[in-house]
Design brief:
five-stranded antiparallel beta sheet; Aminoglycoside_PTrfase (chains A, B); Homoserine_kinase_II (chains A, B); alpha+beta; homodimer; amino-acid biosynthesis (chains A, B); about 40% helix; Phosphorylase Kinase, domain 1
Chain lengths: ~325, ~325
């Protein structure tokens, strides 16, 4: 749940005068996004999302995030489209915070995705990868391999309180990834966080991708590995071959994987599992007293990691 | 900020099949109401609010609250109108909780109300009092005089940590109210919590009243006293005569006060200030560790109480 910055009707109405989207009819703080404050606006011009960027987002990254959504939307991807002010700017300031308004997307996220949803996500991910090419700005992935050891250092002393030998398991996997991580695979803009709650569906058709605040430049196939982890396991962390096959086939129908990408998929999937294991573990070990938000279970990603460690061929993910 | 019960798109879509309001396009948990979970729905039939009633609301009171909104809306008051299901019911169950869907009201609450806003509230309050007559159900006001001593008992031992001699001040005022409280004034359905954030305005016109979850049967003029306290003081708790005069005049234009009601106004205002002083004090002294919500300042109502204690004539509130 987001913590909301307090915005008054008076201040927001004044802010909207900078835009050409009509006058304010209502606005509600919404429980979407844990990093920022989000408001659903109804104006005489339609529905919009107002985002106030809170401390955890580096303001220097905002031109990348907002520019990327604009770049992708202009290329036909259904993602929130930043609304330009009358003076052409997309980033303003409201309640002392950087603020942007984007178009509202219909749709709901699916709690229990089926094979068809995984196929739709694979297709949309490949479309995102193609549409991202040509985007002028770049952003390093702070949560790729070089970012994992600092997370391990923060968690290692108490990791074994979460699961037996967890620190040693992570240390070994981390060393393996650091040594083996592929260096020559195709890179580009990746979403890097395309979990269930960031994909909207309407009547089982994918209606939009949201939350580009982890987007960055990295190995494209790594983004697919993140999605395999996020979408293609059962609730008890068993890999679902039918879902994996559907996702990869739909991805390849838009952007075929090279032989090198295919070969690297098991390693990329291990790295992706390790990345979410590490960030969840750090969050788990650092829950503020009295926090309302329950942290996500890190052990879900330990189970996924163990599956990937046993994979001997990318065909086990459903590659044709 | 509300704590949200988790509702899935799958469950909500199934629930909406009981209604005739179209199919779901989107839904967002909104930061409105501290007692219940609220969601803003977009359907092919329009915008609606879904409320899930949490533990702090007694399910036995729900027919009163929901029936009242329906009764008032049918009499032209702009308040959320409960939507009936195909079988005629207004109260269902979702995610294990009692659930109702009401119409969505445009408008925003005003942070810094002006004289004209206070006039609009006075008029709407009188309209509510007239429209409430004939409503078949009744609900005792648990936060009227008999409910104040138990609050005092919970707070008295630590009250003086909040302000010097606060316990003694409250004890004296409580004794005064218990002895002097009027018994023969006109009663009816009152809102009992018509603060700024429960009144919507659109272009300075009152567009709706919300949050009827303190509504009950009590002295009508007591509701006016609550509004004088909530709306007609400056931010530093000075009574604003122009606002009081505007509110009372607009109220009387719809429902003239009797001589007995007028005479009782200073006492009703004292009681109202004591009631919010007490509930805020109890909340202030019982903030859970790590709570995200900042409790409201009880001393604002101590300052208001002190103003009312010095009032010698109802004309000091702006009565013509």
């Amino acid at each position: 749940m987001a913590v909301y910055t307090d915005v008054t009707a008076e201040d927001l109405s004044a802010h909207l005068a900078r835009y050409d989207i009509g006058t304010l009819l209502s606005f509600k703080g919404i429980a979407e996004g844990v990093e920022n404050s989000n408001f659903l606006l109804h104006t005489t011009g339609g529905s919009f999302i107002l985002t106030l960027y809170e401390k955890r987002v580096d303001p220097k990254d905002l031109p990348f995030f907002i520019g990327l959504m604009e770049h992708l939307a202009a290329r036909g991807l259904t993602c929130p489209q930043p609304v330009r002010m009358k003076d052409g700017e997309t980033l303003g300031e409201l309640a002392g915070r950087p603020a942007a308004i984007v178009t509202f997307l219909d749709g709901m996220w699916i709690r229990r995705p089926q094979v068809m949803h995984c196929g739709a996500v694979g297709k949309a991910l490949a479309e995102l990868h193609l549409a991202g090419s040509g985007f002028a700005l770049t952003r390093v992935n702070a949560l790729s391999v070089p970012g994992w050891r600092p997370l391990y250092e923060r968690a290692k002393d108490r990791a074994d309180t979460v699961a037996p030998n967890l620190a040693a398991t992570i240390a070994a996997e981390l060393a393996h990834c650091e040594v083996s991580w592929p260096k020559d695979l195709p890179t580009g803009v990746i979403h890097a966080d395309l979990f269930n709650d960031n994909v909207f569906f309407l009547n089982d058709r994918l209606s939009g991708l949201i939350d580009f605040y982890f987007a960055c430049n990295d190995i494209l196939a790594y983004d697919l590995a993140i999605c395999l982890n996020a979408w293609c396991f059962s609730p008890d962390s068993e890999f679902d071959f039918a879902k994996g096959r559907a996702m990869i086939a739909a991805y390849q129908a838009v952007r075929p994987l090279s032989a090198a990408e295919t070969a690297a998929l098991p390693l990329l999937a291990r790295g992706s599992a390790l990345r979410f294991l590490l960030t969840r573990l750090v969050d788990w070990l650092n829950v503020p007293p009295g926090a309302v938000v329950t942290p996500k279970d890190p052990l879900e990603y330990l189970r996924k990691l163990r599956f990937h460690q046993k994979v001997t061929s990318p065909t086990e993910y459903g590659l044709a």
